[in-house]
Amino acid sequence: MDANLPISFFDKQFQKQVSEQSFALNPFEQIALPYLLASVLDLGCGLGNLAVEAARRGASVVAVDASPTPIAHIQRVAEQENLALQGVQADLSNYRIDDQYDTIVAISLLMFFERERALALLDEILQHVKPGGCAVINVLIEGTTFLGMFQPGHYTLFGREELAQRFAGWQVLEHVYQTFPAPENTEKVFVTMVARKV
Prior knowledge:
By secondary structure, this protein is α/β, with parallel strands linked by helices.
C-alpha cells in the first residue's frame, strides 16, 4: 500500500472543508484550546482550526502538517489577519522538533505511525516542552475497531493507561476518554491528555 495514502485521504477531506468553509473546532481541539498559550507547536495540525484560533487569542503558533491544503489555508489566514502563525509542510514520519515551546499539541497524529516512531515522537514532544508548559496529546486506544483509515501494519493503538504512564511526574490537567461511532458498526476510542511539565 502507498505510504502517502493517509496524506492523500486527509488532503481531499481538507479541500472539502475549505470549500465548505467548515472550520469548527472538534471535541479534542475544544479540550486543548484553553491550554494553548505563548509559544505553541501544533504537530499534525490538520486544517489548522486550532492553530488559527490559538493565534487569534495571542499565541505564537507553528503549525505542521504533511498535507499541502491546510498549510496553504493557514498561511492565507495568517497573512489576512496578521497573525503570529506559521504553517510548515513536513513529513512527520521523520520530523525533528528544533526548539522549546510553552505548549506542544499532537491531536490524532501519533496513531498513524508504527509503534517505535509513535513513541519516539511522543518522547521528543515531552523533551521539548518548557518547564511549566503543557503537552496536549490525543490518540486512539485499544478497543478501537475502526481501522479503515490506517495502512495495515503502519499504525499504533495505545494501551488505555499508556499515555498516563508516559506522563509520570507531570501534573495531569485533563485525562478524557471519548468513544465515537464509526462506519460498519465499528467505533473509535480516544484518550486526550493535557499535562504540565513540573
